[in-house]
Amino acid sequence: MRWRVIALVSLVVNLALAAVWLSVTRQRTAFAAAAAAAAAAQATNAPATTNVVVRRQYFTWQDIESPDFSTYVANLRQIACPEQTIRDILIAEVNTLYSRRRAVELVTPEQQWWRSQPDANVLRAALAKFRELEAQRRGLLTGLLGTNWETGDLVGLPRPSRPGVVLDGPVLGALSSEVKQALENVSLNSQDRMQAYLDTQRSANKTPDPVELAKLRQQTRNELAHVLSPPELEEYLLRYSQDANNLRTEFGQLRFFSPTPDEFRGVFRATDTLDQRIQLLADATDPNSLAARKALEDQRENAIKITLGPKRYEEYRLLHDPIYQDAVATAQQAGTPEAAQTIYAVNLATQSETNRIRRDTSLTAEQKAIELKRVELEQLQANTVAAGQDLPPEPPPPPPLPIQPKKVPVLGPGDSLATMAAMYGLPESAIKAANPKVDFRRLKPGMSITIPPSPFSSSPSQ
After folding, report:
1. 91: number of Cβ within 10 Å
2. Percent of the chain beyond pLDDT 90?
3. Distance between CA 170 and CA 256 in Å, rounded?
4. Residue 265: per-residue pLDDT
5. Is the per-residue pLDDT at 100 higher than 60?
6. Are strands 406-409 and 448-451 parallel, antiparallel or unpaired?
7. Cα four-point dihedral sign 340, 345, 346, 348
8. DSSP for 133-193?
9. What string of H, E and C letters represents the secondary structure of 228-266?
10. pLDDT digits (tens, 9 = 90+) for 252-295
11. Average pLDDT over residues 317-334
12. What is the pTM of this model?
């Protein structure tokens, strides 16, 4: 705000100088008129009485200020306001105007406090609107001050040394500048208190106490309640409170549960007070406090159930199970989200069978691996059918290997062509044809005999 003070002080000084100049000019004119009247009376020998009353002429800022910026500039120049002061005042006024417009007209992802992930379409629209307003702001200043107005910009856009909360949207964006400044002060004081506590704990090598953190946040809430009306306070808490952040995280971890604004607001209203009470019991160890915390947590769960209604609550409850989340993901990828429940049942059965196999001490590690692979394949097939898709065709059997003749040794004197033919189920002629250089009447142990493939089998002779 220092630039506004400098600009106003400069303006007040110039206005005072202008007022003095006007006063002196009027006095000189009045005295000149009185002297002329006296001279005329003496010339006509008529008695003349002169009664001159000199009044200071006052004017207010409203006489200069105008909603039309061109008129505003002309008024400032008429009272001989320095050009640099005019530039500073005008830039500050235009920046303030467009700051209000950005706060009210931009719909940013941060305003969608019910979403755990920002909407990319909203972000693109907000950027486009921001560029449009920025182009209008710069065009207006260029039209009023010329193309080189930025070279003399001593004020420019505010550049706070500490970032505060963003107060935009239809509720927070419409707040008066006084209320926004009060909110900024509350926010910065809250940050200072929180940081001082964390620094103290760190210096003492202690972990921050969640109960103390909850008390600090409650102090900030009490200060906010003195600045904002109940609807404004709720809007602020929906965007910036720890409870709302925790709720967004909880919904985001469910992956496929996207609450509507009304659902998020309703759950926040139903759980906010309970969450604050639960946080104050965060480090409780005595039985009574533990029982009180459990009762509050049960009450919180029931409040969510009532707020969401039976159907949405069942979906909310199931999505806390990673197996159900996987089922929903599979169903959505297949384009059949309605199959999620069936796939979930298959996944539960698979999980049960997998646990049974792993606990079975009668199976070796290799056998367990084979059984687990079988269960995995059956799960894949069942989910494919549940999603309304066709099973992939069975792969064709591999082509039979070409049957090659094999060499066998003559084992003893009893081996003959007849015994070999009987042993391998081949005609004697086939064995003789495969061994044209062997005299089967003179077989000796250790000789190598080629046994041809059997014409009655598709596999090699054994």
Report:
1. 24
2. 26
3. 29
4. 94
5. yes
6. antiparallel
7. positive
8. HHHHHHHHHHHHH-TTGGGG-SS-S---SS------HHHHTTS-HHHHHHHHHHHHHHHHH
9. CCHHHHHHHHHHHCHHHHHHHHHHHHCCCCCCCHHHHHH
10. 998 888 899 999 999 999 999 999 999 998 888 899 999 999 99
11. 89
12. 0.59
What is the C-alpha R_g of the chain? 46
pLDDT value of position 277: 92
pLDDT given for residue 48 in this prediction: 46
- pLDDT the model gives residue 203: 93
Kindly state the helix (H) or strand (E) to which residue 211 belongs, with its residue range: helix 210-225
CB atoms closer than 10 angstroms to residue 41: 14
- Residue 448: its H or E element: strand 448-451
Q: How big is the CA angle at 184 (ends 183 and 189), to the nearest 5 degrees?
A: 100
Q: 351, 321 in Cβ contact below 8 A?
A: no
Q: How far apart are CA 392 and CA 394, in angstroms?
A: 6
* Structure tokens belonging to residue 357: 């196999």
Domain residues of the chain, as ranges? Answer: 2-113, 169-318, 322-386, 406-451
**Can you read off the two tokens belonging to residue 166?**
């963003």
Question: Do the Cβ atoms of 239 and 111 come closer than 8 Å?
Answer: yes
CATH of domain 406-451: 3.10.350.10
